[in-house]
């Protein structure tokens, strides 16, 4: 969205609006298909909040690519992890009563790392270390997804992925 010059207020406003819609939907079952994940989860709400937070943070400092990185890590990483985990997950584990699979968690890490590498290689000048940085972000995303309850991963994964990538890119840029 940043390449279309969408202003920060529009990104934040959309996130806040959809967070409100999802809260209403939880209460009045307006959109049952997006809330029906088979467990108590506020993931859709947290995802909308994360978009507002990322937009407000990274658009205002003129680094929207990191907001996009966080959002794409969540959509692609978590989405593919869920699909692969359900379809091919044969090696399960449980954390705090949540059933996960190693296949899903590895998918989360790998897809998140690939997304991170693609975004960073297209938008930053830290080319020599992007693979290592992206693997770190992918592992962080998988750990946060594994340990988050009630859909909180939809908040923690995109914000932490973007924040860590941003911090490391800035730090590495100063070293070079």
Number of helices: 7
Q: Tell me the fraction of residues in β-strands, as a range.
A: under 5%
Q: Uncertain runs with pLDDT below 50, 5 residues or more?
A: none
Please provide the ordered H/E string of secondary-structure elements: HHHHEEHHH
Number of domains: 1
The strand line-up of the biggest sheet is 1-2
Instruction: Please provide the count of β strands.
Output: 2
Could you describe the largest sheet, including whether it forms a barrel? 2 strands, antiparallel
The shape is: flat
| Gap from first CA to last CA | 29 Å
Average residue-wise pLDDT: 90
Radius of gyration (Å): 16 Å
Structure description:
By secondary structure, this protein is mainly alpha-helical. The protein has helices at residues 8-28, 32-35, 43-59, 64-88, 102-123, 130-147, 153-175, and strands spanning 92-95, 98-101. Strands 1-2 form a two-stranded antiparallel sheet. Helix 3 runs antiparallel to helix 4 and helix 4 packs across helix 6. The chain starts with 7 loop residues before the first helix and ends with a helix.
């Amino acid at each position: 969205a940043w390449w279309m010059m969408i202003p920060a207020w529009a990104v934040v406003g959309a996130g806040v609006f959809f967070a409100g819609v999802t809260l209403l939907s939880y209460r009045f079952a307006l959109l049952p298909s997006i809330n029906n994940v088979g467990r108590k989860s506020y993931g859709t709400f947290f995802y909308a909040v994360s978009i507002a937070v990322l937009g407000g943070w990274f658009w205002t400092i003129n680094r929207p690519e990191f907001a996009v990185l966080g959002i794409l890590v969540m959509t692609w990483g978590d989405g593919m992890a869920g699909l692969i985990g359900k379809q091919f997950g044969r090696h399960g584990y449980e954390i705090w009563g949540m059933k996960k699979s190693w296949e899903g968690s590895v998918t989360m890490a790998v897809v998140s790392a690939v997304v991170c590498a693609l975004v960073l290689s297209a938008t930053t000048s830290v080319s020599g270390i992007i693979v290592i940085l992206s693997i770190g972000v992918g592992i962080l995303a998988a750990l946060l997804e594994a340990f988050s309850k009630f859909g909180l991963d939809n908040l923690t994964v995109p914000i932490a992925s973007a924040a860590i990538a941003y911090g490391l890119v800035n730090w590495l840029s100063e070293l070079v």
